[in-house]
Amino acid sequence: MLANAPVPPVPGNANAMPRQRAPESKISVLIGIIKYALLVVLGFTFVLPFIWMFISALKNDPQIYTIPPIWIPNPAFWSNFPNAWTQYDFTRFVFNSVFLYGLPVTFGVILSSSFIAYGFSRLRWPGRDVLFGIVLATLMIPYAVTMVPLFIIWKNLGLLNSYSPLVIPAYFGSAYGIFLLRQFYLSIPQELSDAARIDGASELGIWWRIMLPLAKPAITVVALFTFIGTWNDYLAPLIYISKIELYPVALGVNLLRIAASSTGTSANVYPNLMAVSTVVTIPVVILFYFAQRTFIEGVTTTGLKG
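-> structure tokens emitted (306 positions)
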């Protein structure tokens, strides 16, 4: 009986019977189609405001106020971009936003928040957790509550009409940045710090040579959030800065609307606003595009350990 038993196919044998794949369920295929269709619709609704902003930048006033809306400008007024950009010194506004506001604040937040977060995550000292809770509690204080007292302080110091009230606080830490970096530091094995201490490294050296290089994804997240926040900030510069030559981009864009209302005319105001808004949106999109991998890595790995 054993001699007549069928021989099982040997792996790699050309005469072996191919394994048949189970047919996919029609319901699972339908669910996949619906899922991707929903994602496409949601993605389009997200991009639609940016598309409309760019389209509106190519129109003139009659096309802007036409109902139903015109989706393809005819003719397209590409001259709106240079005309709107040169109506005020937007090159100077961009310089102010990047080199006088954005980069100094971003550097200050990264430096101070990473240093403070190291103390909250790696060092043991009395009252550490209580003080960290107080730091987190400051996130719940609305800016409107501290706006007037801070203005009085900076006014008495004689620092109005400068970027000092906007830049100096960044070097004392950001509660949100401290929280993100502390959570990331907690996910780094303690053995690395212990090994560095055995080799004679100081706490400052451990933070600078070990923790900061490993925390690059989380630092990228904090840097992007901080720079985008300063790039779009309107209220704080409006409070402390009144000289037009010191305006950042957000206040510069608002000048187009103010000029139209003061002169009593609205000629091509909306297309100019959309043209400038399109141009100042491009740097943020490019920045996120090149840093998206590190940014997503930092978001997904931050907060895994508490």
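The chain has two domains: 26-80, 81-301.
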